[in-house]
Amino acid sequence: MDRPAGTAEKPGGKRASDPLITGLSAARLRLAAQAEAMLAAQRKAQADAESALKKAKNAQEQKAALKRKLDDARAALARPAALRDLPQAKELLRRHLPARPTGSALKAAYEAAGLHEMADTFVLYRIIGNDLYPRHRKGQSRSNVAFILENEPELEACEKRWVINRIVDGDEREAIIALLERHRQPWIEIPFDWDEYARIDWDVEAFEGLPCEVSRDFDQLDEKERGLVAARLRQSKNNYVMNNNGARNAALADGLDRAKWVLPWDGNCFVTASAWRDIREAVTGRPWLKHFLVPMARITDNASLLDPGFAPEAAEEPQILFRCDSTESFDARHPYGRRPKVDLFWRLGVPGPWDKWKYYPWDMRARGASAEAHQFGHAGWVARLASGQSHLEQSDARSFQDRGLARAEAIVSTLDHLDAQRLYRRYDRDNLVSYDEARLDQLARARYGWMGAWRSHVLDAAREALGRGPYSVTQKTSLPPSGDIHDYWHPAPYWHPDPSKPDGLPYIRRDGQRVPGTVMYEPDSAQYDRTRLQMMFDDTTALALGWAVSGDIGLARHGAKLVRAWFLNAKTAMNPHLTYSQVRMGHNNNEGAQTGVIEMKDLYYVLDAVRLLERSGAFTRRDRAGLEDWLTRYLDWLTNSTQGRRERSSPNNHGIMYDLQIAAIHAYLGNMQGLIDTFCASRQRLFEHFNPDGFQPHEMDRTISAHYCCFNLQGWVNLANLANACGDGLWDFALPDGRSIRKGLEWAMAHADAPHWPFEQIEPFDAGRFVPLRHAAAIRAGQPSLLDGLPDGQAVKPVFHPHDGIKPYWAI
After folding, report:
1. Shortest CA distance to 229 belongs to which of 251, 205, 212, 216?
2. 410/11 Cα distance (integer angstroms)
3. Which of the two ends of the chain, N or C, has the fewest CB atoms closer than 10 A to its terminal CB?
4. SS3 at position 471
5. Helix (H), strand (E) at residue 291
6. pLDDT digits (tens, 9 = 90+) for 83-125
7. Three-state SS letters, 119-179
8. pTM beyond 0.85
């Protein structure tokens, strides 16, 4: 059959226009279209999901960013007011710099002075100071000197000299001098003198009205800021020992008549041949400038400097060259580690990253503009030898911050180590620190007069104590909130159950109404531990003193038994904390208040009693080791618990009684660092405790002001006596405005002689409490005329109530 025109036959004999074929094709097209639609829908769904996820992620990031901003805002508000919005240096240095002189004017002045006729000679000083660990490796200064002497080339037209700057370590000093002598190097020395150093105190005056180590807002400072506070407190000590700018000025003074250009540089500066060529070309090319800045390159491997082609990037804080007619010098008040050179940069108008550095309110302020401002240029580079701490030698921001922290830590640890050595020159951990050794010997020999009467009193008290004790926290008749009988337990004296609540919780305060059993020595007090603790303190002290004046070993043995029972015997010992002292039930998770720490205030004289028991042989070395362990754990609680930290920052008598406890424990343990920290902290309390005239603002606003006036002063007297026994001069310390223990005693003695106490005192007051203070003022505070006003010794009682804060037999 013939095919119609225009048609073609498909394989299998079917025509393209066959309905079956057409239907199949349409079905395929529909399926393809549906598949494409499904894929499009899936892609859209996926895109929508990704978009939603991105929006959610953006929302989370925005929420997180907002939270960070809120957290930052809260943190800023929580910071001490004095540390908010710290200004940058440039904001404080908006001073009128002199007009920038023209080059022609400087050239004319240079030639008019005849300096153009002087040869361009140089004298380079390297200042060798103390190694400061952990900023430097021990022996690093000597290693640097050796590397320079062995590897640095001769420098054209330059004399090399050295400054040995108050090196404390005698062996290192001798080794460095021997090294210089072996290489025939000229040197001058600024010696370290122990007596001079011992006269330098902490710089407490910088912190009036500012966060300091005993203020309530100190914990709000970050690690860096706490390190800055510690370093600032030691600034005068730093300026003496490190003598950073002082040594630079000594080099300047020595060099101005030796050469046209003086380079008072750090001891770790190394100059390569190529670097020196660059420096000389820059200086001789523009000699009419009075100063040149030479940027430093921080080196991690000194061996790299031996490569003639070595050319590192030099971007560190520069060293300075001075022309011999410069009138500038370094400010010796600016300490090592806190912008000593930068102060001169600001003065000369040298721009740099230091313009953005923050100023803290305790920082030294920069000097005014120099008449020689703008008269500087830049010259070559100099290498800064490795410090031995490669992780601190990188050029990134983290390393910069770490260097600052390490430097502050090194300054503080070095100076504290020296202070510890200073104390060791007088301190012996076995010596008494609260009682006076010489007067105790006098008491032992006394048979007549007031000392004879006191000796008899001691022996009577000791013999009575033989019939009492031992005492233990396990003897109380009620349990602390913890349920552990070994925990010290004493409720807050004025907090009672709330009668409107079924369980009485939380307790409410009833001023003036003491909880039964919280009055010391009353019969009901046996249910708690306060009375028992005091009886252990007083009986142990009487027994130890009794042995000291009589040699009766039976007294010492019973005293040792009391100490073992309270501190050492596993069945009877007190746990080393005061977590349940002065508890207000229903408050603070039924834990005690910070004020409860004061209940252990008399530990200072009891530890002297223990020393006497050790001398007797009744308290053994094993006993001492056990007591040291107990005290170490108690000290950890005192310094790290919330109650202890809050008590430390108390601005009134609680703060000084805290220091007294801490110092007594450190003295017994032989912990010099702890003593240094405590004696420094106590000085910082003077701002809060006294006005310049000696008035005590926190004690005199109380309703029993005479009591608190004497109680607080007695705490200061007790701590100052302990400090004196340890070689510290707290007795002699005064702030620039006169605030001191002496001023406080002067004020109190002047008002004690008045016919009536002129301030509020609603309870009866024992005026005899002024006698121990008058005695302290006469003997310790340099007011001997007050001895004339003391009553006959036999008329003065030797033992006061424990609440008075006066140690038993206070004149001994």
Report:
1. 212
2. 96
3. N
4. coil
5. strand 291-298
6. 877 877 766 665 567 888 999 999 999 999 999 999 999 999 9
7. CCCEEEEEEECCCCCCCCCCCHHHHHHHHHHHHCCCCCCEEEEEEEECCCCHHHHHHHHHH
8. yes
